[in-house]
From TrEMBL:
One of its GO terms (biological process) is lipid metabolic process. It holds the Pfam family LCAT. InterPro entries: AB_hydrolase_fold (IPR029058), LACT/PDAT_acylTrfase (IPR003386). This is Lecithin:cholesterol acyltransferase. One of its GO terms (molecular function) is O-acyltransferase activity.
Length: 402
């Protein structure tokens, strides 16, 4: 038995107040197109700040816990995998995405121990993992909990991973959610409150960009996001002790909590693949003015650096391990190819048929057997000795040289 563990991205788990009779919804994950539009326009929009110790909400009457996982971006893929591997159970690991990925990595380790005992250890051949977006950071932190004992891991597919963050995390901290909801929040006077709420969430800091040239001062020097003086001053000036604590945790997260996947044993790296989206217009860099009026380290949101990525995660962030772990690029196709999914390439990444094919093929005990299934098309196209992912078309290619 090789159970499959699915770890979703940020905001993809419904959050509820368990200290109510009906488990009142605090954050509504996207379940259908209609509920997605409704949530985007009118909320609910979570308003619970976290304490200095980010395990706890500031409101003593509220206990926020995870509930169900968003159906719209994931259910199609999970059902397809379940049909393919119907003898192996699939487990959904939803989590409170406001908290540090290190906290949720610990919870994932506990969850896996629970499953090992539930399923009887002697029947297990290892777990297979699928992650989306920030779920890859949760998985990375889970690896740090294993004390180099990786025997429970069978195979791993990391989809659209923000290994080195995304400028959108910074944008979110500065201006809130954006879009129609942000406009309505301004009308009803909630926009500033919402921004102050998300500034208490460790996950947003851990998603801040730190790949090369992600954020630069106008003189070309690099921003250090563990240095409070390199942050826009009006973000933190009214919550400086809390902000300093978040930056200290961010530094620790980068250095000790998030596992450097390039340091994994070669045997395990050979059982992993990364799927990175590209060719979608993505903010890849932010320009920072050292002082504008009373504001220090002012970030110019009117002059964003645009490049390639999946629309949310820059290509340079998702592909940093391409020399160590097989990294497969999936290019965004014409918007009319898969209309509903391509509108939000990152958010609907797992709905893409090419991504689903890669996951299913990777989980095959011998991925080269997929060439037999594709034998007719290989002959028609004149292919010889193609690797297992190449029959998916020219929009899918390996970025790794091995």
């Amino acid at each position: 038995m090789k159970p499959i563990i699915f770890i979703p991205g940020i905001e993809a788990t419904n959050l509820v107040d368990s200290n109510t009779f009906n488990f009142e919804t605090k954050w509504n994950a996207y379940d259908t197109l209609l509920t997605s539009i409704g949530t985007t326009i009118s909320g609910p929009y979570i308003e619970e700040k976290l304490q200095l110790n980010p395990l706890y909400d500031q409101n003593n009457n509220v206990i926020v816990e995870r509930n169900h996982i968003a159906r719209l971006p994931y259910e199609k893929t999970i059902r397809n995998i379940a049909e393919k591997y119907n003898s192996d159970p699939i487990y959904l690991f939803g989590y409170d995405w406001r908290l540090s990925n290190a906290v949720n990595g610990k919870k994932l380790a506990i969850f896996l121990e629970y499953l090992k005992n539930k399923l009887h250890k002697e029947n297990l051949e290892g777990f297979r993992f699928v992650t989306h977006s920030m779920g890859a950071l949760v998985f990375s932190c889970y690896l740090s909990e294993l004390n180099e004992n990786f025997g429970d891991i069978n195979k791993v597919v990391l989809c659209a991973p923000p290994f080195r963050g995304s400028p959108y995390a910074i944008i979110h901290l500065i201006k809130g959610d954006g879009g129609v909801k942000s406009f309505l929040n301004k009308i009803f006077g909630r926009d500033e409150d919402i921004r102050k709420v998300v500034r208490t969430y460790p996950s947003l800091f851990e998603l801040s960009p730190w790949y090369k040239n992600a954020m630069l001062f106008e003189d070309g020097t690099t921003i250090d996001l563990t240095n409070i003086n390199h942050w826009q001053s009006n973000i933190w000036d009214d919550i400086e002790p809390l902000f300093q604590a978040r930056l200290k945790s961010l530094d620790d997260f980068k250095k000790t909590k998030m596992y450097d996947l390039s340091k994994l044993p070669e045997e395990l790296r050979s059982k992993m693949i990364i799927i990175a989206g590209s060719k979608d217009k993505t903010v890849v860099g932010l320009k920072v003015i050292k002082k504008k009026g009373e504001i220090k380290s002012f970030i110019r949101l009117d002059d964003l650096v645009i490049g390639s990525g999946d629309g949310t995660v820059p290509f340079d962030s998702s592909t940093i391990y391409k020399d160590h772990i097989r990294t497969i690029e999936v290019q965004k196709e014409d918007i009319f190819s898969e209309l509903g999914d391509n509108i939000d390439f990152h958010g609907m990444f797992l709905r893409d048929s090419r991504v689903q094919n890669i996951i299913v093929r990777m989980f095959d005990d011998n991925v080269q057997t997929t060439l037999e299934r594709d034998k007719n098309s290989n002959q028609i196209l004149g292919w010889k000795n193609k690797d297992w992912w190449e029959s998916l078309g020219s929009s899918v290619k390996s970025l790794s040289k091995f």
